[in-house]
Design a protein that fits this description.
It contains two helices and six strands; from the N terminus they run βββαββαβ. The chain is an alpha+beta fold.
Length: 94
């Protein structure tokens, strides 16, 4: 079996490595604007989200380490991670 090598962007946080590539997608109907996701993301370091017009929004997508902490912090499950890649031309599988 031949081994293939793929390159991926990696972020290091909390003593672990995360493969970057997914960013939070926020459902504006479910978002209460409570700010739990924003506070946790800011506390952990990436500082990707902010509240704008009463709804959490992705303000700095390039900072995202794709750890999913914002999803876990959301009491209404309004956040899920979406690939930042075009579905028509996805990156090679790892």
């Amino acid at each position: 079996m031949a081994m293939q090598k793929f390159e991926a962007q990696v972020a290091e946080a909390f003593g672990r490595k995360f493969v970057k590539g997914n960013i939070p997608e926020i459902n504006p109907v479910r978002c209460l604007g409570c700010g739990h996701c924003v506070a946790l993301c800011r506390k952990l370091g990436p500082n990707v989200l902010e509240i704008k017009d009463g709804i959490a929004r992705v303000a700095r997508p390039n900072n995202c380490i794709s750890d999913g902490a914002c999803m876990l912090a959301c009491p209404t499950k309004a956040i899920f991670l979406m690939s930042q890649h075009d579905p028509a031309s996805p990156p090679p599988a790892v």
